[in-house]
Design brief:
The chain has a nine-stranded mixed beta sheet with strand order 4-3-5-2-1-6-10-11-9, with helices on both faces. The chain has a two-stranded antiparallel sheet with strand order 7-8. The two termini are about 20 Å apart. The chain is α/β, with parallel strands linked by helices and about 250 residues long.
């Protein structure tokens, strides 16, 4: 994908990646690193939206297992994403990147409401827009949010940032040293193989709207910029499989 053909992209950052080597909270050195990566990436001229997860602060599924009402647990998770979004916004602004945070639930004191046309206008002005609170509905993951916002805003690519995993494998590379990495793979193969790229709702939304996904290691310096410039970093998930198909 040539850089000149890509006008707008959506980046999904998991909450877990923000905690670094810790099990909980925010590692401020990691946050500064991610902000610097985004700052360099937008010098390509590609408009960039960001969706952040909240798993470093709150896990709704785990709270449900402890007896908490699932809807309440999920709304609590949405608030966790707001904390992460505000922290990332501050880190970006400290590095001179103009940023806006939009929330899918009303929290006017700290974030704008999500309004599609306003978000598009921010992006057109070169601002990074961070989308918090998921979709605003329970039972929906932030993976689904990333796919939904990308489609709503006409993004040409969804970047799925992984934590020290450089693409899609046929098995968990952290547990299986013989796992094989795919250079390219089709949506339907990811679904059929039950590969852990994103949840099935998010993947189906990308497939239905022909939105390509680039899965990569967010901690490889310069990876976001290279992808926006058209590099074959990580794994491309799309509806087509070329002769340079996956190794797996």
């Amino acid at each position: 994908m040539a850089a000149v053909t890509l006008r707008r992209a959506m980046l999904k950052i998991s909450g877990e990646s923000l905690s670094g080597d810790s099990q909980f909270g925010i590692d401020w050195s990691v946050l500064r690193f991610l902000a610097s990566e985004i700052k360099v990436a937008i010098t390509t001229g590609v408009e960039l939206g960001v969706v952040v997860g909240g798993g470093n602060m709150w896990r709704g599924a785990e709270a449900e297992l402890q007896g908490m009402d699932r809807v309440t647990a999920d709304y609590s998770g949405m608030l966790a994403t707001v904390i992460n979004a505000l922290a990332l916004q501050d880190a970006l602004e400290q590095q001179g990147v103009e940023t806006r945070t939009q929330s899918a639930i009303d929290i006017h004191a700290v974030a704008e409401p999500f309004i599609q046309r306003r978000a598009m206008r921010h992006l057109e002005k070169g601002r990074v827009v961070i989308f918090a609170s998921g979709t605003g509905s329970p039972y929906m993951t932030t993976d689904t949010t990333a796919a939904l916002r990308a489609v709503e805003l006409g993004a040409g690519l969804l970047l799925m940032a992984k934590n020290n995993v450089d693409g899609v494998y046929d098995a968990d590379p952290k547990n299986n040293p013989d796992a094989k990495k795919f250079d390219r793979i089709q949506y339907i193969d990811v679904l059929n193989r039950r590969l852990e790229v994103m949840d099935s709702t998010a993947l189906s939304l990308c497939m239905e709207n022909d939105l390509p996904i680039r899965v990569f290691d967010v901690f490889q310096p310069g990876a976001i910029r290279r992808i926006l410039e058209g590099a074959d970093t990580g794994t491309l998930v799309s509806g087509e499989l070329t002769a340079a198909a996956a190794n797996g």
